[in-house]
Specification:
Number of domains of chain B: 2
Number of helices of chain B: 14
Distance between the termini of chain A: 24 Å
Oligomer: heterodimer
Number of domains of chain A: 2
CATH topology of the largest domain in chain B: MetI-like fold
CATH architecture of the largest domain in chain A: Orthogonal Bundle
CATH superfamily of the largest domain in chain A: MetI-like
Strand content of chain B: under 5%
Number of helices of chain A: 15
Helix content of chain A: over 70%
CATH superfamily of the largest domain in chain B: MetI-like
Largest interface: A-B, 132 and 129 residues
Distance between the termini of chain B: 57 Å
Shape of chain A: globular
CATH class of the largest domain in chain B: Mainly Alpha
Shape of chain B: globular
Largest sheet of chain B: none
CATH topology of the largest domain in chain A: MetI-like fold
Chain lengths: ~300, ~325
Amino acid sequence: MTTTNPNPPVPAAKPDAKPKKITKAEQRAIDAKNRLSSPWATAVAIIIAVLWTVPTFGLFVTSFRPAAEIRTSGWWTFFANPAITTENYVDVFTRGTNSFGSAFVNTVVITLPSVMIPITLALLAAYAFAWMEFPGRNALFVAVFALQIVPIQITLIPLLTQYNNWGITGSFWPVWLSHTIFALPLAIFMLHNFMMDIPRSLIEAARVDGAGHVKIFFQVLFPLLVPAIAAFGIYQFLWVWNDLLVGLVFGSSPDVSPLTVRLADLTGTRGSDWHILSAGAFIAMVVPVAVFLGLQRYFVRGMLGGAVKG
Amino acid sequence: MDFLLGADSSAQKLAVMVVAILLFVVVMTALLLVSELPKMPRWLVIIAFLGPTVLLIIFGLVYPAISTILGSFKSGNQQEWVGIENYTAVFTNPELRTVLLNTALWVVLVPLLSTVFGLVYAVIVDRSPFEKQAKALVFLPMAISMVGAGIIWKFVYDYKPTERPQTGLMNQILVWLGFETQQFLLNWPSNTLFLIAVMVWIQSGFAMTILSAAIKAIPDDIIEAAKLDGASQMRMFASVTVPSIRPALVVVLTTISMTTLKVFDIVYSMTGGNFRTSIVANEFYIQSFRTGQRGIGATLAVLLFVIIVPLVVYNIRQMKLSEEQR
């Protein structure tokens, strides 16, 4: 790996740095315009863009329509006969002990430690694999790397049995622990790739000055790793926020269960109450979408690197 | 300290979260500080950096994996050994065979269709003036939860009898075209195809992003040469673009098939595995946690693992190849 890109599968776009190439880049831009002006290509692009947006848009419009109208007419009739209400959101967010308000808190409480803890542990482990000498280092690293492919399904029941034995089921602890464990192999792998790109001389200079590993880690490496931490952090944040399986298995009690679990429950119990489902779905989506729009660059980088997880 | 295990108000939950984070910070800080003290043995610092991770991985991945593999040779209540009975059941029971067939459909169709949509879209919008916005539209489904995506599409598929006003977009289109309305999620095998469409909708953004990066990395001189030869656009696409990004294509296909194998949320939230729509990842959950057939559940989990391994090995080799080519 010669770039700071952690993701082996992504052949990164080579910046057209040489001045000679600028005209060619412009030429390609012109070609692209010609290509787009071909009516068939434009039509295909528009059809795909529409197919990828209209379903979400339809549910979004529905979430602001009065319940009675949702049942008796399609969301597309809204534009001929607009009637807007926020009642669905108020209803879903506050009603009952199983409200989405409490589920939202649960999701936040689940997500923050499940992002912070594995990243910290993985940073330390990746540092050890990259810069410490000890017997069996390579074998251990390969083992951790290989464990990325264990599907989390295979671990669920034994883990659940353990948590039961410890008497911690029904609290947040099993959820945090599980998310941490499942994140570690990939996090170590990605952060290790980043660390290997840091020039060896930098670390060695610090060692010559007599700095220990802890000092080197926090003073020399950490500042350089901020982009990598951001990329993986955002990836892990969204993975945990959007997770259903771990939440369902380890966090099924109402005091713990996250938005996704509450939402999946609703589709089973009130599958045709679209005023509730639509508003609930958007409450669950608003944070990931905001993160996506705000931090798209990091988000894409983390998502590409993390594609093999799960 | 009861609230640490049974927080029920929002304030308590947030307090538990802060306690958990502080606990972690304090333990790790202590470990690191002690390991850096002078005269401490050298291995202590290695333990401090690596110890917690290794313990967690052994406890949470290695041990459970072995335990599940053993469990796949035990009975439903995990009390007695049954040999390969669970495996024969998975391959002979007609319902479970439908599950395997559905899974095969998912694993073949989702990567292929996602890649086709992603590639076509990436090529068309490449270097167009509104490329960034156009790509964001298709990538957005990657950001939302699969449960959310399931609900979005369940609403698109919503059914009302033909003579009533429609609420689902697909059925409304059928009515506009003069057809009878359909219960899209009711009849096998078409219902599986409609579920697969949702996963394609999600994964195309991933394919598009990787392939778009690969397309931009094609050297200009190759394109120039092809143009000098007077290649048409279709010809360029088939003879220049696709061969140049072949390694990226393979990575996208294998990565999406791995993701697809493990996907459980879509089936769970859209049909619950009813109407013969179940797939291995979902059937695992039903057998393990609903019907109490833990032997079968373990077998399905092992099966997932066994199918994924060759894909991963192939994927890693392709990644190495594409790195060497750069």
